[in-house]
Amino acid sequence: MNCTTDKNDEPDQNNENVPECLRDFADELKTLSPWTPSVIVLRPATEFAFDYDRRAKRDWTRRILVGSVAACFAVLCLVLEFGPCFQSEKPQVIAVSSTPAADAEPINYSAFEGAWSARQSTNPSADYPAKPADEWTDLLKNRYEGWTGADGIFTANLDGTINEGLENRPEQKTVFVFSDTLIGKIDRKKNLRSDVKMVNHSFAILDGNKPQGDRIEFFYANDGKTPRLPIKPSTEGQWYWLSECFVLKTEKGSMLNTFLLRIARREAPGAFGFRHVGVDLLQIPIRDGKLDFEAAIVTEDTNNRLFNVVEREIGDDPRSRSTFFFGTGLLENLKSSGAPNPDGYIYVYGYRDERSKPRRLIVAKVLPEDIARLDRWTYYAGKNGWSNNVQEAVGIADGVSTELSVTPIPFGPKAGKYALIYTPGTIGSKIAVRIGDTPVGPFGGERIIYEESVAATLGEKVFAYNAKAHPVLSTTDELLISYNLNSNDEHFALFRIPDIYFPRFVKIRVEDL
């Protein structure tokens, strides 16, 4: 389908001079995301065209033909002003004049401690101890229909154990939880996605201890077998991403627990048009090796025990915000989980954000039987010990990411210690480790163990983020680590290019931590 307009065609508020094909494209565009646009703003260009491959239906590529450098209208801009998630009303289509480049507000791609270029791989050939684990990457990469990508990956063994070594567990069943998930088709010959939908979260179960594609089953909204999904918050216009997960055995049977990140829309460019507004807890019974989604229970954090925002005066700043956020990492220091030095507690990690300060790791602890009784959680307050007041939680490591892991080291020169693994500053090509003496530290200096280069190769403003370890997928002598790739490209590269949006894996020998 070719669609052409002249730069002198200035559309008015009645949407005149807008080609019908533009309206058709706007309707097509809204099928690419679950965030139904409330307004699609179309800006005129000298000439533009969209190639529409009818054999693949929604496979589409884009070419922009620039006719004159002097004409500020030479670029087609599609600006999506998203309304609430799952909005049912049909979007309003408005055509407006392009904003001259000199008057346009610049997009800030350096919100996470440095420009994009500075956060991409600078020395991928360095001799880092972690190496690619292609067999695990291929498990999630080599999919061509249905579930075809996601981020926010966390894992747990359905029987609740952790540290026995994957090679010793041929009958293991591993649950994966994901956040935003792409459902559709992938054509590897064209290297394009098609029929793309995005759902806010998904699950999977891998049967066995090998990364075999025919042994993993996915569950997501409208999959024809899981009507309970998606899990929705009680507040209209919000949605859930899935965070750290773990399995506990109770008197009523085993239960998958996963933290629910309550998300709302905010005005921001590219991939960052969201904000965290809360954390809740999801519990799903496990029956006969399967997740009973229909019996799932959501415990809402109504008293701000998992997510807390404090406004206070600091120095000359009359309003400085401090945000406490839990559920980004977890350590089951339990005998039943196989912990080497169990004390009977579950340690739930999070982070504390303050203006002009690096993101800081914080930690809470709770007895397993009290996991859903949020009033019984306590928070590490440093020299003051443990406090029932979330606002007294102190930072125990700086510069961490919004997803991370703390894992016991079972043997080697650092046996008995704990490995904190994360992406420094949340976004960037490097994966780091710090070694702690206890689950609450003190944690030593940051050491880089891997630097990825895929993001820089792909271009399209692709970035890596949120590295973490997966002890339930690790062997006795190697620790498996994942990281995610996403794109801040304003032209929807995420929904077109298959290689951007699925977890990658690396592995490191335990003795090299």
Give structural notes.
- The chain is mainly beta and 513 residues long.
- The protein folds into two domains: 20-95, no CATH class; 117-512, Tachylectin-2, Chain A.
- It has four helices and 32 strands.
- Strands 19, 20, 21, 22, 23, 24 and 25 form a seven-stranded antiparallel beta sheet that branches.
- The radius of gyration is 24 Å and the shape is globular.
Task: Provide a concise account of the structure shown.
This protein is mostly beta strands. It has helices at 20-29, 116-119, 134-141, 454-458, and strands at residues 37-42, 47-52, 60-65, 78-82, 92-95, 131-132, 145-150, 154-157, 173-178, 181-187, 192-199, 202-207, 216-220, 239-250, 253-265, 274-287, 290-291, 297-299, 307-314, 317-333, 345-354, 360-366, 378-380, 386-387, 397-398, 405-408, 418-422, 430-436, 447-451, 462-469, 478-487, 504-509. The protein is globular.
Q: How far apart are the first and last residues' alpha carbons, in Å?
A: 55 Å
How many domains? 2
Q: Please work out how many helical segments DSSP would assign.
A: 4
Overall SS class: mainly beta
Global geometry: globular
Name given to the CATH architecture of the largest domain = 5 Propeller
> Proportion of β residues?
35-45%
Helicity range:
under 10%
Overall radius of gyration: 24 Å
Give the class-level CATH name of the largest domain: Mainly Beta
Fill in the CATH topology of the largest domain.
Answer: Tachylectin-2, Chain A
Topology, number of strands: 32
**Biggest sheet, open or closed, and with what strands and sense?**
7 strands, antiparallel
What is the mean pLDDT?
79
Would you identify the regions where 5 or more consecutive residues have pLDDT less than 50?
1-18, 25-119
